[in-house]
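tool=predict chain=A
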Amino acid sequence: MSPAATAGDPPRQERAAQIAALLFGLAAGPAGWIAQLLLDYGLASYACYPDGQPHLVAPPPGWDQEKLALFLIAAVCLLLALAGLATSWRLWRRDRTLMERPHHVVEVGEGRSSFLALCGVLTSAGFAFAIAVSAASISVVPACWTFRP
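tool=predict ok
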């Protein structure tokens, strides 16, 4: 390995870490929302239709803590989305601060990083809001509700 290649390794490692952080910021909000949907749907559907027959009482026998479990799932998923939001916000602010320096020369990929970080801020914030609204609906919608005309 040449000395020039070893001298360029730390920036390459730093760049790889920045790309990983950008991808985390972009994916954390949607991943949290998808996880909440899958886990909530699986838990609630099993509680209401354990053998393919619906329970007509809410909560079903043995499922007194279902709402607590759904709130805990929502809280963990919301924390994941907020972590993505914080990561993206930090990267976006750092890029904006670098670009606002006088006589700053824009490097290759710098504008792209700022754009991806801003996309991560917007997606994580939107999905965090969706997770929060879905969590609020847990307290309003009764378990195993049925429509009876």
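The radius of gyration is 22 Å. Residues 22-140 form one domain.
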